[in-house]
Design brief:
alpha/beta, TIM Barrel, 6 strands, two-stranded parallel sheet, about 45% helix
Length: about 190
């Protein structure tokens, strides 16, 4: 079940898990979707990191965390974002904009028009001819491999040997530039402590 990261996301997630959902797909604030109007994309919702932390904690508190997977999406733009999301409690991350950029997208924010000038989010034959599937596949493969190697370096630096061991390990995170209330919500300590 895909839900937006909004102020009551933990209660919503709890309800859908209790209803039998296999996964909770959290779509975070400021995700890169070109299908949403800019005013909605930039001003509605809460940051993905907070949504992951509160959903993970709520499901743990209610003893139902093992009944569904948490998928984090929206603002996953680097391997570091991936590692943070996993450490905050996500089981897996979905990438959208980063994958589109690897395919040649220039983030025009016009996906919803059906007239993507790069040929990626359209069905118009004159536009889809602009896409080179082999070139795109190579670039997307490079992105995933690079992120995989970077993630291995991050895990090594944290003294963790598997992504599964990182899941929910908030004690490995430190906050930089966040206020005390946000640190408390995330369950992380400020840097230097």
């Amino acid at each position: 079940m895909k839900i937006a990261a909004v102020h009551n996301v933990a209660a919503i997630a709890s309800g859908i898990v209790r209803a039998g959902a296999d996964y909770v797909y959290l779509d975070g604030f400021k995700g890169g979707t070109g299908a949403a109007p800019q005013i909605i994309r930039d001003h509605i919702g809460i940051p993905l990191e907070i949504a992951i932390a509160v959903v993970d904690q709520r499901l743990r508190d209610e003893g139902i965390r093992n009944q569904a997977s948490i998928v984090a999406a929206g603002s996953i733009r680097s391997s570091a974002d991936f590692a943070k999301a996993i450490a905050l409690g996500a089981d897996v991350c979905a990438i959208g904009s980063a994958a589109l950029m690897a395919l040649g997208c220039h983030l025009c924010q016009g996906c919803h028009t059906g007239s993507c000038s790069w040929g990626l989010t359209t069905q118009k034959p004159e536009l889809t001819r602009r896409v080179d599937p082999e070139w795109g596949a190579e670039r997307l493969t490079n992105l995933v491999h690079a992120w995989s190697h970077e993630l291995q370096e991050i895990l090594g630096a944290l003294g963790v040997n598997a992504v599964e061991s990182l899941r929910g390990s908030r004690e490995r995170l430190r906050a930089v530039g966040l206020d005390a209330q946000t640190c408390e919500i995330l369950g992380v300590k400020p840097a230097g402590l």
